[in-house]
Specification:
The structure is a single chain. It contains 48 helices and 33 strands. By secondary structure, the chain is α+β, with helices and mostly antiparallel strands. Among the domains are: 163 residues, no CATH class; 223 residues, no CATH class; 155 residues, no CATH class; 60 residues; 176 residues, no CATH class. The strands form ten sheets. The chain has a nine-stranded mixed sheet, sandwiched between helices. A four-stranded mixed sheet has the order 15-19-16-25. Strand 17 and strand 18 form a beta hairpin. Helix 1 crosses helix 3 and helix 31 crosses helix 37.
Amino acid sequence: MKANDRARLTTALRDHVAKIAADLRAKMRATGAARAAAEQLHKDERVAEDFDVWTDLLSRRAAVLWVLKSVYVRVLEDRGLLEPGRLLDPEAQQLFEKLAPNLGETAFLRWVYKDLANSRGGVPELFSPQPAEVALPSDELSRSLIGFWRHRDADTGAVWSFAEERFEGELMGDLYQELDPVVKDRFALCQTPDFVRAFILDRTLTPAIETFGADEVRLLDPACGSGHFLIDGLKRLVAATAEKHKHWSKEKVVAHALDRVVGIDLNDYACALARTRLIMTAAELAGVTKLADAARFHPHVYWADGLEQVEKEEQKPSLQFSLFEKVEERPRATLTRSDVRAALKKVFERKFHAVVANPPYILERDEARKEYHRELVGKNRRYVSATGKYSLGAPFTERCFQLAEKDGFVGLITSNNFMKREFGKALIEKVLAGLDLTLVADTSQAYIPFHGTPTILLFGRMRKPEATGVRAVMGKRGESGRPQDPSKGRVWTSIAEGWSQAGFENEYVSVSELLRETLAKHPWSLGGGGAAELKTKLEGTAKERLGAIAAHVGPTAICGEDDVYVFDGRVPPPIRPYVIPLGMGDSVRDWNLGPLPSVIFPYESVGGPVLQSLPDPANDWLTRHKSRLRARAAFGVKQEDRGRKWFEFRDYYPDKLRTPLSIPFAEVSTHNHFALDRGGKVFNQTAPVIKLPVGTSEDELIALIGLLNSSTASFWMKQVFQNKGIRGEGGGLTVTLWEQFFQHDSTKMKLFPVVEARNKTIPYAAKLDALARQRSERNVRSVIDGAVWQSPAQLRRAIDERHAADFADLSRMIALQEELDWLCYSLYSLDEASDVISPENVEPCPPTWLPWNLTFAEKDAANREALANGQEPDEQPSVWWERHRWEALIALPDEASPALKNRVEARRARTATTPALALIETANFKRRWYKPDYAEQERVALSEWLADRVEQSAKARASAFSLEQLVANLQDDARVLAVCEVMTGRKDFSLSQLIASALQGDAVPSHRFHVYKPAGLVKREVWERTWADQRLEDAGEKVTPEVPPSYGSGDFLRSDYWRLRGKLDVPKERFISFTEVPGRSGVETLYGWAGWTAQQRVKAILAIDEELEDASAPLADRIGLLDSAWRLLPDVAREDAATATRLKAELQALVGPEGPSRELLEEWKKRFPPPTARAAKGRKAAVARKVDESEEDE
């Protein structure tokens, strides 16, 4: 099947899966047999998630299984294995309907699947009911699925056909990976491309056959997914077995080989796909043409947790009792069923001669599984590598070797994060160091489809180390663009062609024999082309490491739930007295610290003790999230069990805050970013800080920052810290090293080599620090707030003057940084020349005047010329200048001084002849100076100023207001009008449109039906149950409030609501939109101030309702508005119980003693749907409408 046809089929089936999942989800949540079965499964799987939330995943799994079974039927039909047909030809359905005329399409499909699950002539591996299938889809959806398979193209008359489909091909992989996005994310579904599989099998299964013999070899993939490795391995085993037993029949050869191929996966439908593909491939290899014959093939694919050590006899501890309560059993793995465990025990009686894997790279977040992985078995942990925040790739690497036969071959492609992250220390030094590693290949710079995470290939044998060296393929640089054929990408072909030749080197990789003792120590550094040697030289030049001179390196506070505590930008007025600045990683850039978010600070002072109780506004804010805050844990121990109050930070280090000076740095960034902080802030894990001993002067910190912010430091850090891969923040590819993000962790930061003569950096670093602070303080908003202006012309002039001054400061910083970089080359003995000039004499310049950039631009111009001439250039043209908004130069302009020109040319010449300088003087390690986007800075500052002014006007009102009322209030304000004119660049601007934009972009509807999608409403109900239980607990009742789930972007009706609220639905918006008010939509929508107390908000709603009642609006139309008020009563009671009682009585008179009924609300919901985007832009939406029953709820 062609690629575009595969994509079309996958997309179409994905749509069926989504609709069926929605239908099944509703059935699982409604009272009845489906819910009872789902609740039992929820209990059996020991899932920590709330049941209603978990059913979202369960319904998706069941929907995928239902649709995939229809795929299997079509496959069997098209391959001639199923006669008569079932789906394509309507005859079978017509016969079924004659026998059972009232059962419908779902019953027909169920009959087809059940018939084909028969152990006599059927294929139970494919069609047997799975535990997830606790509900069946509606007849309408089954009818649609059947119709899809029978639909003929209007032009060609063709139907979807699998007659020519190869089952080792891409289609089945696409179905596995893409049928449901939530399942894909949950199970980290990721295919292994064919060329990677071939490379791994060539170095595992093929030599295993040669070593142990074709009849003996057993192959295992403990994370098999849809079975790519299994199929490729089966074909190799069949070929080897056929060669040895030429007199055997094809069927006997295939059966013999298939019996020695084993796969395990945690995803039930991945296992189903793997079984299907293995049976179909076995049938093809054996030349089988009848289903009964194909059914004799029984693949060993097990739905289980590949990390569960079922081969070990695990004696459950006997139940012990204290005097008062039962002692809990140890945790067990959660998903592997007892029958599967029993089957796997038998399979694992013999180990495997070849073990291959592409394990999931995600962090393990399930607490029960983490406890299982870390459980003591004898004196050791079950998985030594399951330490800290470990990636699943680490224990899977261990598992592969555990299950390998003595001298067996192991090969896997896995995340390379263990090489440099702290959890990898145990894997490297306690596991891999004792095994016979034979090859490690850095694939982080190769383009491997589906793998945005940087990877490494690991090969070894299950025996003690033999040779003193380990073959290593070390990366030098990445692809210059996405290769059209990934198997022919320059990095991959360099690996494939060069790995076997020690001493091989080209532009992309270098190959050498690394001493085994080097790879027995953490971290690993696999930089090629002299990078590893230069790193060693830098470390040898320095007299000290940072850890030896620093008192502390790490965060000073970790909230644990940032969405609750942290405010990025505006802070709601009631909370403002209780916040302080919070240093976060993306605020540390180019010597500067800011602008900073704010954080609720539940302590007496910075470095002081925790408050004994919270002020009411802060308490009210945090109480909504009390259950989640209590559930925060460090090293598995929950907040209050650690002796902490529920409302304080998860981690807080007051001793590290007693001295004001510190050096925060960006934990995740493309380059090195350090700044000087002078106190009054806390810093979280995204911006760890370096603290020097008490009494250290500011100059000493400045000197250290000078080293840390240099290009030399950037080079060292990129050899040591974890590269986060080729996927950029926006989802695109970041193929070059300069645009890839690195994780600068505190542990390895302590290893930074510090030279003795660092004080020489002080003049440059001090000036850079001062200029950075000046640029930060002189921002556009400070001009708007501080300048004396009344007219648009005065404001425009003040802003323009600010821009000019800022650009002058930036140009000076660029020149100073360049001198600092070259000074550091000298300090680290990389450059013997001494042409660094004093800070006072630097010539301000853009980055395009710098030596490295001129050389870079010359090469890029040559590449562009080759491309224009129809030739294939050495590299694709770079996007560096476009990305940073500069114009490339290949020669210095006339305005550059002769002294600068001479110095630049001399440095270019030294770089060309000095390998160390040539490595560092590139975009990969030089600071990324962006040309400021002053227009965008203006837009943001002016928009925020206007939004603040609109909010001031709203804050002064005690009742709901319209857009028209706000416009009337602001239309005579000269400063408002001046800001609007400068912002739009027009005198004829529409004040109404600008204020509408400020309102609508920062407002969330009052009623939940207008905020959340159905899945979000389910989560909201869980949250409301938690709040109710918290109130009971506060009243002294013994209840345990449930920990409510996080929201996702797909739970909200609009992306704006997700942007404003986030994963914990924290109300950080400025305004409320009363979209539930009948007859008031579009420009007539009523708004309120989000800073109102619950009492003020209820009173405003009741005032609106009174107006509606006076206008004869029926109660049925007002029920949504009254429901909004009803749901606020518990919050009113926290403020004032007497007022809450009075307001409740007033509402009960309108909606009854228990509030609006579910039936009334459902009817209102149908008649008053959420406002459309079009209505939000000013057009009127329909007031109420009748709903066609065929319309879907979503």
